[in-house]
Amino acid sequence: MQTGHWYVGGVIGVSGRAGNRQMSRRHWSIGAVSPPPSALSSGDGKERDTVIEARLQQEILIRSEDREGVLAEVTRILSDMGIDVVGIRLQTANDEAIIHLLTSSQSYACEALQDAGYDMSERDVVVLDLPHHPGFLRRASEALARKEISINDLYLSVSDDSKTGIVVLTCSNNAHAIQLLRGY
């Protein structure tokens, strides 16, 4: 049974941190059916016990005047509500600031930011949880390029002591990218 994860092995253990909480998950591949071939395989066999999670998620886009303190205001609103920032990127151009935001609770974050008067919208993004070691981002981007899927926007975050990193991207075909990266 496929559960939305890309399996390349048997029993998989993935752990990491989300804020101050320790997370641990186990994924089991059950049955006689072999897992789908890896879209990210390099043929070296090194990714045998790895699971890549690819999902479609809504990213919040906040547009504001480019001024000192706008990021502090946005993050204060979220922290006052107990909402963790999972991913964030700030762009400035032509006196405008654009904040790209993924949180632990998108719906509450949207409501709080709208109540505070921010001009915001949402867009679909592909979110990947990639192992934190050399080559996985390369393999993911090469797999997309082979299928002529172009990456339009990308940011990532990973700490030195983490086993996984989060990659947020938009591309020419988000749905196809998710299917490809899941290994279907």
CATH class of the largest domain: Alpha Beta
Number of strands: 9
Largest sheet: 7 strands, antiparallel
The secondary-structure class comes to alpha+beta
- Reading the helices and strands in chain order gives EEEEHEEHEHEEH
Name the overall outline.
globular
- Indicate the CATH architecture of the largest domain: 2-Layer Sandwich
Tally of contiguous helical segments: 4
Number of domain units = 2
Strand content: 35-45%
**Radius of gyration, rounded?**
18 Å
Helix content: 10-25%
Unreliable runs, pLDDT <50, ≥5 residues?
Answer: 1-39
Termini distance?
12 Å
What number is the mean pLDDT? 76
Q: Which fold name corresponds to the CATH topology of the largest domain?
A: Alpha-Beta Plaits
SSE blueprint:
Layout: E1 5-8, E2 12-18, E3 21-27, E4 50-65, H1 70-80, E5 85-93, E6 96-103, H2 106-115, E7 119-131, H3 136-146, E8 151-157, E9 164-171, H4 174-182
Antiparallel strand pairs: 1-4, 2-3, 4-6, 4-7, 5-6, 7-9, 8-9
Descriptors:
single chain; 184 residues; alpha+beta; Alpha-Beta Plaits; 2 domains; two-stranded antiparallel sheet
Describe the structure.
By secondary structure, the chain is of the alpha+beta class. It is 22% helix and 43% strand. The protein contains four helices and nine strands. The chain has helices at residues 70-80, 106-115, 136-146, 174-182, and strands spanning 5-8, 12-18, 21-27, 50-65, 85-93, 96-103, 119-131, 151-157, 164-171. The strands form two sheets. Strands 1, 4, 5, 6, 7, 8 and 9 form a seven-stranded antiparallel beta sheet that branches.
